[in-house]
Design a protein that fits this description.
Elements lengths: L1 H27 L5 H16 L18 H19 L6 H34 L4 E4 L2 E4 L6 E3 L5 E5 L4 H17 L1 H14 L4 H26 L4 H11 L18 H9 L6 H18 L10
Parallel strand pairs: 2-4
Antiparallel strand pairs: 1-2, 3-4
Helix pairs in contact: 1-2, 1-3, 1-4, 2-7, 2-10, 5-7, 5-8, 6-7, 8-9
Length: 301
């Protein structure tokens, strides 16, 4: 367990440096399309998912030689501790503390997963009597704002008392979420957060991921509906964002951004130029090369 915790710690530290680079790149490319920000968080997810990485002289990650040898040491430590115990000695205090921290980490991850399961079950119980409107769109009297629930067979849930003028734009927004796969990316992001819950940088990353997903979805809808419907879409945002946090019981509703920022983003939307998109793609490639690889380990004779 201690070796696993150290491995996760190493991955989390490396990903934290990548997050700092992502935050800087977001500031430099604020005119880039919003999907670019979501793509950046995808690169962070890759760094958090894969426990191995190739070495490259182009890597910008600092060396973490203090953690890597510790993983190897912990893997061989139990045998040494057993020998010491047999000889009447005692286990190393550092090893004992590391074992305690590992179990605390595991308990925290289990608590977050349990919270997710309970919240999702409670939300499903709330909408169990929802009435189908059409397709995968349902209406319920027990919710105050629309949302998407489910991963394999996702459903769109709408409040019964929704203005008919807002419904068109709300459905367009939620369907854009499904086409973009946001109902999969948000739970994946939350799952990674449960593994790296001890790292404050990962909490910040998840909140920003949720915000960027919503902004990118708004951008997609405006591009499809046309800029002439901006005012109606913004009105739908204002109407349906009231008391939205009251249903934030599952990861899909966690960390949603304020309506003011989304309205401002819709108002200022402009179709990105070819050169901005090209620059964003190049930036993603450079970021991946420099931060998805580890620095070349120093070899002493």
């Amino acid at each position: 367990m201690s070796a696993l915790f150290l491995k996760v710690l190493h991955m989390s530290v490396c990903a934290s440096w990548l997050v700092l680079a992502v935050l800087l790149l977001r500031l430099c490319l604020r005119r880039a399309p919003k999907w670019f920000n979501v793509l950046l968080w995808g690169i962070v997810a890759v760094r958090l998912v894969f426990p191995f990485s190739v070495e490259s002289p182009l890597s910008l990650l600092p060396r973490t030689e203090a953690i890597r040898p510790a993983i190897t040491t912990v893997q061989t430590q139990p045998a040494r501790i057993s020998s010491a115990a047999a000889a009447g000695g005692s286990a190393a205090p550092a090893q004992s503390w590391l074992s305690i921290l590992a179990w605390v980490w595991l308990a925290g991850a289990a608590a977050l997963l349990l919270y997710t399961m309970v919240s999702t079950l409670r939300l499903r119980h709330r909408v169990r009597e929802a009435v189908r409107l059409r397709g995968n769109i349902y209406q319920s009297e027990r919710i105050d704002s629309p949302f998407v629930l489910g991963t394999i067979r996702p459903r769109i849930y709408l409040p019964y008392r929704m203005d008919s003028r807002d419904r068109q734009h709300v459905i367009a927004h939620e369907q854009a979420h499904l086409r973009r796969g946001d109902h999969l990316w948000k739970p994946l992001g939350f799952l990674l957060l449960t593994i790296h819950w001890f790292n404050p940088v990962m909490w910040l990353s998840y909140v920003l991921l949720c915000r960027d997903i919503e902004l990118a979805c708004d951008e997609t809808v405006i591009r499809e509906l046309g800029c002439e419907q901006r005012a109606d879409y913004m009105q739908a945002l204002v109407s349906c964002s009231v008391n939205r946090r009251r249903i934030a019981a599952c990861p899909l509703a966690f960390g949603e951004i304020g309506v003011k920022e989304r309205v401002k983003s819709v108002m200022n939307y402009k179709k990105p130029t070819f050169w901005i998109i090209l620059l964003a793609i190049i930036a993603c490639i450079v970021l991946a090369v420099c931060f998805l690889t580890d620095p070349v380990a120093s070899r002493t004779e």
